[in-house]
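Provenance and format

Records in this collection were gathered into a single text stream. Each protein contributes a sequence line and a token line. The two records reproduced below are adjacent in the stream.
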Amino acid sequence: MPSSNIVLTNVRIFDGSQLTEPTSIAFNGGVIVAPDALPGTETVDCGGATLLPGLFDAHVHLLFPDDLVKLAAHGVTTALDMACWPPERVDSFRGHTPDIRSAGTPAIGGGGNHARMPGMPHDAILSNPGQAEHFVAQRVAEGADYIKVVIEGDLLSQATIDAVVTAGKARGRLTVAHASSVDAYRRAVQANADVITHAPRDGVLDTDIVAQMVQQRQVVVPTLAMMEAVIKGLAPAGQDYAFSRDSVTALHTAGVPILAGTDAFSGPAPLPNPVSHGSSIHRELELLVEAGLSEAAALRSATDLVAQQFNLTDRGALTPGLRADAILVDGDPLADIRATRNIRRIWASGVSVTPN
């Protein structure tokens, strides 16, 4: 049920680094306000529970309306879709909870796994850099919020990858590169994509790549939940989850921003252990902590850091004036990140969401 006015009392608030002492916070018309500025038509005594900003999942693939239901029920109030088509399907997901952004159709090379996905649009397949400008113009016309290019082996030439990234930036869009191997990372770094998603499963990133990423202010969404699922489910030769984990450790230690995303997908997949919408973001946080992020850094990877990197400056923190996206959990996730699973209540833009 919507609640335009609500005051939460006796609640410990995550401020980006620590939990406050028990205090009060208020939501009015979908926005966070100072508690003394609102009498409140509903008052909730939180009993010392913890309030976190609504979570982001910075890498999902939306297919069915139920995907949104599952995400919202696990505290995800903003989701970044990293490939969805046709444009009418993308538009059908907008205006709901979670609030979404999407890349729409990705740029891919012919003959690879992505080209064999059912229904993949023909215009996704690029064979030369001269096609990049038209590809990006189409995505922008369709309403894509950012531009994604899939680096899968050598199916796309470096010149084509570079051209897609350049054209995306020229049109004011962030550029996202899919890279799950060390070589793909080198290509994404050479192209200077703004965001690189996934982590290599065939080796650990070397110091030169990491240093260049720091210099170029690139950002990583490692999707460790999916990397773990691929290794456990398929055990590809020469690949190891430890490579993904240790690459994240190296990136984080060097200062590369790490964002929490899962690669959740509800369609047919070869994995016996699919990465599910909603619940997987909590596994992602656990894996990020295992990779060396502090609990506070892991929480920021799913809240204000995503907001900053994707220019969603109206959300991501529990600050007056921002969207009233919040989740109330039992326990202290700064002591045990698994406490994010203990969801008591969820609000998205001030509206109560029913958790699982």
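Adjacent record:
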Amino acid sequence: MPTPFRYTEPLPPKAATGRVAEVYAQLSRDFGIDEPVTFVVLSSAPEILAAVWALMRESLIAGPGSRTGKELAALGVSLANRCPFCVDAHTVLLHATGDHALAERLARGERPENEQHARVLEWGKLTRVPGGLGPEPYPFPREHAPGYLGTALAFHFINRIVSALLTENLLPGNAQRFRVVRSLAGRTLSRTVRRPAVPGEALALLDLPDPGEAPRWADGTPVGLAYAALIRAAMAGSGLLDAEEQALVEETLWDWDGSHPPLDPSGFPDRREHPGARLALLAALAPYRITDEDVAAWRRPEHTDHCLVHLVSYGAFAAVDRIETAFNRPTART
């Protein structure tokens, strides 16, 4: 069977120990999927794996707000980022919430009939553009903002990891493209998805940051500490670049308007001169365009899977950080 992993060879999940094994155990219990490849691909960097899982769990699964609404937000993010794997995954998860008709309308590319659902989906899409949400109120109650914002940021990161390091097929042979398969897959997850999750349980997996590092929008919820842990873990990958390359990445992201870059490769550093900066910027802006040549140009004998995951995570989080700094705090509409 073809491997879903593009540039890494993660250890089999059954061989996991320590923190990685603990993350897999929580994933199975609270997400309902044993060893999902979206997390297995990060297993060579346990600190990143744990932080990403914690942010997703504490926002999407255990955070405030309806699961259907947050799945719609995550789907909007995935559509904006052109991540077909994640688009398919959230369609299946909408089946798991019991919203079968909504899931199938979205699978056909149609607009939700419910205006509230349509607004949340559009909100998710707009989060790709730094500052693109404008002065309008949130399409959800203000007290649910930590759950929705954390979910959006989690999937801006996950989309980029998936597009960079995995193939596009959610299921073998793209079987999720068939309605009956989507529905059945969703039904197998329905019990877990509808079961309430206790907030904060993923924090035990983290080297917890100082509470003062949590963003204000998290309002003191576990989402904030999980986000701060991901900042620390992902930004460590910047050490794989020299100071000039780090500045190039950060300056490019600061000027980024949320658009997808043109096919002309001149907008990215030359892989012969700055292969690390090129990989990081591709991970940030267009991870689906990373090629074998890009990885080979950077990867030397000392660059392990751990290093590649860290470099891609740094680029992915640089984009997330740019998006997060542009979040405004509008008045809620309930």
